[in-house]
TrEMBL record:
Gene Ontology cellular component annotations, sorted alphabetically: cytoplasm
Stretches of the chain forming a coiled coil according to its record: none
The protein's name: Carbohydrate kinase PfkB domain-containing protein
CDD domains linked: YeiC_kinase_like (cd01941)
Pfam family for this entry, one: PfkB
Protein keywords: Kinase, Metal-binding, Transferase
Organism: Oryza meyeriana var. granulata
Length: 409
């Protein structure tokens, strides 16, 4: 009897430890109630699914010791975040990624399946360790430090796995790639898309990985670097390095800040357009975004008119009211020798967390493009979605407000 009691006590303690170490069950992923989903060709998203560990101290961190704070497990990864954002705007994505047969992998897939999203393109294997990123933030939501264990995407998301989904890619309205992929996998995906005339959106992910655009620049229709990623991308195509970016002190005059940023970044922007990229969306943080293009058509509006995908119907109706025809910008036509750079300002926000804002920007742009909006309208939608993201603790807000997004856009 005593032995049975001791065994039960030991099992109870082990179960308590297990519950403490395991992340809580992920929240159910609900689509925003903005309309009814329709099945149709899906934008294909290839890249990382990551378990994010967010640590936010309640006081100034001290080296060599711990401080009280809040630690959360959140579904993350650039490609995964973008796919979730797209889904919540009623455009059903097809995700190609890799996770391990471990706690983190189960956490991510449970969240994904809760929405009824397809997992056919997500490889789950015993010999894979699910990518994990641990981030520490300050009180204002700015990243202090982080460590990423994301080698699985590069090592296991191989060209052979991607080739299995040739049909999905070749019939997609758009292919989005994040730079976590190996150069070989990036090239394989781009070649499949190129053969079928599918536009490619390249997400640089980080300063180090952004240079992976070099061998595939000729295939890229859209890319969304920040200032330092833009310079790294240009330098990867122009050895030895000749482009640079220097962080400036904050200007009280926003117009002056934008003017200085343009003078500093325009050589790199113009160079990348010369290398064949059709649209550059250069994110400038609180200073907004540069939209750069050369010798292009309005692409999505004209080229895909017969292939428009679903996009939140209530949101689209609101946006049509906010974007009267006399406010639209006519982009340059094929054969134009001029380079165009438009500046769209950021909008003020009550910052909670800045992680996920860039991914929401891209997700908003892709969804709007697939819904038939032109580039300028789509970027405006992306900026509005990014604002909703920075005002949320989650990478992707639980819900988007139709009225708020339309008003901000």
């Amino acid at each position: 009897m005593a032995g049975t009691t001791a065994t039960s006590s030991a099992l109870w303690r082990m179960e308590s430890v297990r519950r403490h170490l395991l992340p809580a069950s992920p929240p159910v992923l609900h689509q925003n109630p903005l309309g009814t989903m329709r099945l149709e060709p899906s934008p294909v998203i290839i890249g990382g699914m990551v378990l994010d560990i967010h640590a936010k101290p309640f006081m100034q961190p001290h080296p060599g010791t711990t401080v009280p704070g809040m630690v959360k497990y959140i579904s993350g990864g650039v490609a995964r975040n973008i796919a979730e954002c797209i889904y919540k705007l009623e455009t059903r994505p097809f995700m190609i990624s890799v996770v391990g047969n471990d706690m983190a992998g189960d956490f991510l897939l449970k969240y994904w399946r809760s929405a009824g999203l397809c997992t056919d393109g997500i490889l789950q294997a015993d010999d894979v360790t699910t990518p994990i990123v641990s981030n520490v933030f300050d009180g204002s939501g700015e990243l202090i430090a982080g460590v990423a264990s994301d080698g699985a995407v590069e090592n296991f998301l191989s060209p052979s796995w991607i080739y299995q989904f040739c049909h999905h890619i070749s019939t997609a309205p758009l292919l989005m790639l994040d730079a976590n992929l190996s150069p070989e996998s990036l090239e394989a995906a781009c070649e499949i898309a190129h053969e079928s005339g599918v536009p490619v959106f390249f997400e640089p992910v980080s300063l180090v990985k952004s240079s992976r655009i070099a061998p595939i620049a000729k295939y890229i229709t859209y890319t969304s670097p920040n200032e330092i990623e833009l310079v790294a991308m240009a330098n990867s195509l122009s050895p030895p390095e000749k482009y640079n970016f220097v962080n400036m002190e904050k200007f009280k005059n926003k117009a002056k800040a934008v003017e200085c940023l343009f003078e500093m970044l325009s050589p790199a922007m113009f160079f990348l357009l010369e290398k064949g990229i059709k649209f550059l969306l250069v994110t400038l943080g609180s200073n907004g975004i540069f939209v750069c293009c050369k010798e292009c058509t309005s692409l999505m509006k004209d080229q895909w008119k017969s292939e428009m995908m679903s996009f939140s119907t209530p949101l689209l109706e609101k946006l049509e009211q906010c974007f009267p025809s006399n406010m639209l910008v006519n982009l340059p036509r094929e054969g134009s020798s001029r380079t165009y750079v438009f500046h769209l300002p950021a909008v003020s926000a009550s910052v909670v967390s800045l992680t996920g804002a860039g991914d929401c920007l891209v997700g908003g742009v892709i969804s709007a493009l697939c819904g038939g909006l032109d580039m300028m309208q789509s970027v405006a939608v992306g900026i509005a979605i990014a604002k909703a993201s920075v005002e949320s603790e989650a990478n992707i807000p639980d819900k988007f407000s139709v009225a708020t997004i339309a008003g901000v856009a």
